[in-house]
């Protein structure tokens, strides 16, 4: 497996795009993921991302997209987010990324007003359309398991049902290790996703609240989950997700610490290539 970093770590600490890409390479990461909205990117920023990544010989693997409106009950909102997410896929293609990391939304009103099966159906229909576009571009969509009570996909079993209902070879799972811990996923359940994992996120947490901490600052059994992911045959990229550092002015040491700890774990598992 390769070790990557989502560039939101730098952006949320107020660092410029080129600085973040260059520092990612300098620290030792193999790849980088981009968190950027194509509706907010101008042509200069796109070129800066492409050129700086190429200069650093740092492949762009994934583009992260939060598209909560794909399961909104308003058709106009769904249409907007379907078009917006399609533009994300086009951005992946432009950046020569391999997958779009897709975060879906949550059930509204405690599932008491809009029948939950209707929102599920909205997601399936819209992701099927996105899957067709992804397949045409030679891309994959990695659906993220979110560890919140109302999240549409918040367990391994929900993930499998969703992927089955979508039925697209281009639509797979993102395995977020701290999220698996937060929903108390049995280690062996990771094997249910054999052949269906497109991407992996890695961070730590305290087991109670979403954290995105450097490994070692929480109690996530990262070694155990990563070992199970390796046993599925996955040999792609594990991307560190480090967001909302409590000390933005110390973001470089924050990322360096996370790199060292993750590299140590991956080597202990025997999966760092």
What are the main properties of this structure?
single chain, 273 residues, alpha/beta, TIM Barrel, 8-stranded parallel β-barrel, 8 strands
Verbal overview:
Helices cover 43% and strands 15% of the residues. Helix 2 packs parallel to helix 3. The chain has a single domain, classed as TIM Barrel (Alpha-Beta Barrel). Strands 1-2-3-4-5-6-7-8 form an 8-stranded parallel barrel, surrounded by 5 helices. The chain has 273 residues and is of the alpha/beta class. The chain has 9 helices and 8 strands. Strand 7, helix 8 and strand 8 form a beta-alpha-beta unit.
Q: How is the secondary structure organized here?
A:
Elements: E1 2-6, H1 8-11, H2 17-27, E2 31-34, H3 43-55, E3 60-66, H4 75-95, E4 99-103, H5 116-137, E5 140-144, H6 156-166, E6 171-176, H7 177-182, E7 197-202, H8 222-231, E8 237-240, H9 251-269
Parallel strand pairs: 1-2, 1-8, 2-3, 3-4, 4-5, 5-6, 6-7, 7-8
Helix pairs in contact: 2-3, 4-5, 8-9
């Amino acid at each position: 497996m390769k070790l990557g970093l989502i560039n939101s770590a730098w952006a949320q600490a107020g660092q410029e795009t080129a600085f973040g890409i260059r520092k990612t390479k300098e620290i030792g990461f193999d790849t980088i993921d981009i968190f950027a909205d194509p509706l907010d990117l101008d042509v200069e920023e796109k070129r800066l991302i492409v050129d700086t990544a190429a200069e650093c010989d740092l492949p762009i693997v994934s583009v992260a997209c939060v598209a909560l409106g794909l399961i909104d009950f308003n058709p106009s909102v769904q249409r907007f987010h379907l078009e917006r997410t399609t533009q994300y896929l086009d951005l992946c293609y432009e950046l020569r990324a391999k997958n779009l990391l897709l975060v879906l939304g949550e059930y509204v009103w405690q599932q008491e007003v809009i029948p939950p099966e209707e929102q599920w159906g909205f997601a399936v229909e819209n992701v099927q359309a996105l899957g067709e576009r992804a397949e045409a571009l030679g891309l994959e969509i990695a659906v993220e398991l979110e560890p919140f009570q109302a999240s549409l996909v918040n367990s391994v079993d929900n993930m499998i049902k969703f992927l089955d209902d979508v039925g697209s070879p281009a639509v797979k799972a993102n395995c977020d290790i701290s999220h698996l811990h937060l929903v108390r996923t049995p280690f062996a359940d990771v094997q249910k996703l054999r052949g269906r994992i497109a991407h992996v996120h890695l961070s730590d947490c305290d087991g109670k609240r979403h954290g995105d901490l450097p490994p070692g600052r929480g109690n996530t059994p990262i070694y155990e989950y990563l070992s199970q992911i390796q046993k599925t045959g996955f040999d792609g990229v594990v991307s560190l997700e480090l967001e909302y550092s409590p000390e933005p002015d110390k973001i470089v040491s924050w990322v360096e610490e996370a790199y060292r700890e993750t590299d140590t774990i991956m080597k202990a598992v025997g999966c760092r290539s």
